[in-house]
Design a protein that fits this description.
The structure is a homotetramer of 112-residue chains. The first copy, chain A, is mostly helical and 112 residues long. Chain A folds into 2 domains: 3-80, Helix Hairpins; 81-112, no CATH class. Chain A has helices spanning 3-17, 26-42, 49-77, 82-96, 99-102. At the A-B interface, helix 1, helix 2, helix 3 and helix 4 of A face helix 1, helix 2, helix 3 and helix 4 of B. Chains A, B, C, D: One of its GO terms (biological process) is nucleoside triphosphate catabolic process. Chains A, B, C, D: It comes from Haloplasma contractile SSD-17B.
């Protein structure tokens, strides 16, 4: 079984055991991903990347994991092929940011 | 190669070709995950989960993929074993939310 | 003195007394506004607006206040006339969403 | 009339003219504040505070205004006295971060 499928199965069991399917809808899972992304970002608040990595790496791992867990759960609920979605989006990003125009620039695609 | 490793490799190439390593630090990647999580959430703004899934599923797939892509990229930059981090965090979540106390409740662990 | 100016002055003093000016830059204040907005949103996670207002109103007040406090602080740091900025943006929003096109619709302006 | 009340009144009219009261509930307004906070944060993505202020100040003003507009709107909907809520929360923050313990430190209160 692939990694993503393995986590997906474990999450299904985790949710089912707690009778939480009733709370898991697309909107609240999207909210949850956003909340976990903020908890991850909080590890970097007021300090530099270097300081955060040095002092908060364990918290960063936990919060990044929570983002991924909720993302995989939402993918399962909406029956999305996550690997396929990532490859499709990566291809779109390549087209939005052609190498010759985007090279060395942090500019958003609509201002390139 | 595992799915997560395969995406990680493709992202490395994508970033390198555009000479974007200079912009990719932990703090800005954490910001980026949060911004993409908001774009995902925007697909659900003002409407129900059912309406969002019916009308915005393609956008949801793309934005969820962007969250995952940046999360995998941050994991690569900080040399985090993502599958291991997810399994570790899932175990912590099981302990924070014991079945007998959490069953059927949406209450946060510190108020259980 | 206007309300916004009064809060601005109190925040200046609060920050100065704690020698926190060194941490207050635009980027970290923008991060902070986003983090507080997430804490506000967390009051609504998994539940309906009605349930949230009934059970979490005190927390909602506190988190909404934190969003406003950081927003006023960022405005002060960047020397932005907040009332003017709000009136200007409200006017732009009126033009982005003309009554005849937007009436009764939750559609984003670029899809109207 | 105070500044906040003046904006509140203008927002009521803006929403009413567009028949948008049907969409304005606490949860979706909290989502909206979070989305606007992300658009503000996007002005600082990949760059320093100084670069952002130099190149994106007009966008920063607009997005900060949108955060404030939605915050005032949510306050109106939930009948919150915003100035009172800010003064109350500022007092709580003073107690969470006593000068002698917090001076010169960016540490979160629960780790002080």
């Amino acid at each position: 079984m692939s990694e993503l499928d393995e986590i997906k199965q474990q999450l299904r069991e985790f949710v089912k055991e707690r009778d939480w399917e009733q709370f898991h809808n697309g909107k609240d899972l999207a909210i949850s991903i956003s909340l976990e992304a903020s908890e991850l970002l909080e590890c970097f608040q007021w300090i530099s990347s270097e300081q955060a990595t040095k002092h908060n790496l364990d918290d960063i791992k936990d919060e990044l994991a929570d983002v991924l867990l909720y993302a995989i759960r939402l993918g399962d609920l909406l029956d999305i092929d996550l690997k396929g979605a990532m490859l499709t989006k990566l291809q779109k990003n390549k087209e939005k940011y052609p190498i010759e125009k985007a090279k060395g620039k942090a500019t958003k695609y609509n201002k390139l």
